[in-house]
Amino acid sequence: MIIGAWSRGRSLLAAVIVGGALLSIWFSSPALAQVPRIQGQGTSASGQGNAFAAQADDPSALHYNPAGITQLHGVQVMAGGLLTGGTTGFTSTSGANATGTRDGSLAWPAPAHLFMTANLGDLGATWLNGLTVGIGLTSPFGSVSRYSDNGPQRFKATFSALPLIDIKPTIAYQVTPDLSLGLGADIYTFSDMLGEGHFEKQFITPPGSPAVFGAAGSKAELYGKGTAAGFNVSLLYTALRNADGKPIANIGLVYRNQVPLPLRGGILANGVKTSDASTTFVLPQVITGAIATWPTRTAEREWKLELDVDYVGWKSVRNLDIYLANGGVIPQPQSWRSTYTVMIGTEYRWLKLESLPEWEMAVRAGYTNSPTQVPDLTFDPAVPSADVHIPSVGFGLVCKEGGTMFGIRCGDFGFGPIKPKAVGFDLSYQASLYEQRTVSCGCALASAVNGLYRTTYHTGGFSFRVNF
C-alpha cells in the first residue's frame, strides 16, 4: 500500500512537471538596451566559474547542458537566486563624477532560477527508459542600473531595467550509456511579478531631441515588452570511465539559436505618453564547448577539473532602431561584436564523511573571462560594458535520506508518501572585476558618455534542491 502510494506520488510529480512544460509553451504571452549575460544560473556551477556543461549533474543542467539531465534519477527540483550589488564610478572628460548602482544596495528583482526534472524510466514507465523531461525558469539576460538625474551621464541614462525571463521545456534521451542528446525550447518573455514587467530606460531629454521625448530637460522613458521563442540542442559524451564505471572524461556541446525579441511599448515625457514605439533586440546565438576530467573519482571522493568556452554571437545586434506610431524611425546603431567567454572550474567532493554519516560535502572554485561586446561608438552608461574577470568560490552540502538535520531524518521531510532521497544546499560568491575602461566615442552626446568607467559587482548565490 505504502509503495503503491509512493509510486503514485512520484507519478503525480512527473505529471505536474510534464504538464508544466506543455503549459509554458501553450500559454506564453505574445521591447532598447545593452543587455549582459547573467553569469550564474545554478549555484554549484556559479562556484565553479560556470564551467559546468561537461559535468551537468544537477537540475541546473537544464541551462548549462540539457543533455545532462539523463544523469538525474527520479524527480529532482532546484530553486535559488543571485543577490548582486556593486557600483560603477564614472568620471567624465570634464572632470564631473557620477556613481551608478543596482538601483539600491542589491539588484531587485533578484535574478532567480527554478528547475524540475523527471526521469520517466525511474518512475515506472519502463518503455520510456532513457528519457528524461524537465522545465526550467531562468534570467539569462538582464540589467538594472540607477544614476542621478543631475549627473554628467543624464542625457544617456538615469535608470535602466530589463527583467527578462527564459522558460525552458526540455527533453533528453540517453542514446547509449556514453551518449545523451537534449532538445529544448527557450521562451523569452516578461512577467508582472518581476519589477514593472517590462523593459524600461529613463534619461533626461537632451537639447535637439525628437519631439516625442519632450522639451529639453524633460524626464523621458522608453518602455516595452514582448515574447519570442528559440531552441537549443545539446550533447553529453563520456569518453573515458574508470574501473568502477564512473565517467572520468566528459565532453559537452550546446547550441542555442539566435532569437529576435520584439519589444512593443511606448515613450513617456514627464510621465505623459507621447507615442507608441517598438524595436527588436536580437538575443545572440551561443555555442558552448566543454571538457571535464576527474583526476580522482572513487566511492569516497571526487575531484573534477573543467574548461568551457562560449561563443556569443553579439554581432547580430546591429541596431535598436525605434519605430514610432506615425511611421517615423529614430536610428539607434549598435554594431556590437561577437565574443568568446572562457570558464575554468573545479570541484572537490567528499562522498562519505566520518563526522557526518549520510552527508556529502563539496568545495568549488572557478574563473570566468568575458570580453566586452560594445564598441566605444555605441557605449551606454546604462550597462557599462568592459572586459571582466570573475573569480568565484562555492560550497555545497547534501543530506541523504538516512542523514539527520536539526534532529530530523532528511528522508522524513516531504508530505504524505512523497519523501526525499536527498536534500542539498549550495552557496557561491562571484566578484565581477571589470577592467577600467576609457570611452572616447566621437559620437552624438559624447559629453554624456566619454570618460573613465570603474565597475565592480559582488554576487552571492544560493540554491536549495530536493531529490525524490
Largest sheet: 14 strands, antiparallel, barrel
Number of helices: 3
Mean pLDDT, to the nearest integer, reads: 88
CATH superfamily: Outer membrane protein transport protein (OMPP1/FadL/TodX)
At the first level of CATH, what is the class? Mainly Beta
Domain module tally: 1
Tell me what you see in this structure.
The protein is built from three helices and 26 strands. It is mainly beta. The chain has a single domain (2-467), classed as Outer membrane protein transport protein (OMPP1/FadL/TodX) (Porin), CATH 2.40.160.60. A 14-stranded antiparallel β-barrel has the order 1-3-4-7-8-11-12-15-16-19-20-21-24-26. Strands 5-6-9-10-13-14-17-18 form an eight-stranded antiparallel sheet, with no helix packed on it. A two-stranded antiparallel sheet has the order 22-23. The longest helix has 25 residues, at 2-26. The radius of gyration is 24 Å and the shape is elongated. Residues 1-35 have low confidence and may be disordered.
